Amino acid sequence: MNPKGEKPKSKITASRKLSLKMLLLTRACEDLERERQDREEEKVRQIAEKLPPLKLSGASLDELQKICKQLYSQIDVVDEERYDCEYKVGKHNKDIHELKLKVQDLGGKFKKPALRKVRVSADEMMRALLGSKHKGSMDLRANLKSVKKEDVKTDKVLTTEVGDWRKNVEAMSGMEGRKKMFDTAGGTQ
Q1: What gap in Å lies between CA 53 and CA 51, rounded to an integer?
Q2: pTM higher than 0.70 for the full model?
Q3: CA dist., res. 80 & res. 99, Å (int)
Q4: What residue ranges do the domains of the chain occupy?
């Protein structure tokens, strides 16, 4: 890709693209027309095979009735075949649908339903999990340690020295403060 994030330019000109599209469309139209003609020819061939042309000229009433009965029996046979084919197609479609569901389950590509937020108290949750075994309410605060609160103000007064804090910092800062610490701790030299 370009560092600017632009689309790479095509090496085929717009007029060439248009002519290619036109060629593809004309080829597709020709293929569709050829397929339609093939279907029509197959239909005519199937009808000619199943039902030969009738010779009705110069036939008597008995012969016409016999021809009608033959046609009626052929219609029954064709209807039975059609019904069988429709049943098989329906069964195959159902099998295909079930197999698709199995594949989706195996692949794990199914949509998870959106979960709703539900407010449940601790007691209700324990009842749902444990059923009738849960007895009494669950008081979570009863199990906590109790801590004795002491007076914080009196502790602060005892631990802190009364005085100006700035004097303390100035006295201990720098080398003078370090020297004073050694002098007071170590004694005289």
Answers
A1: 6
A2: no
A3: 28
A4: 15-50, 60-108
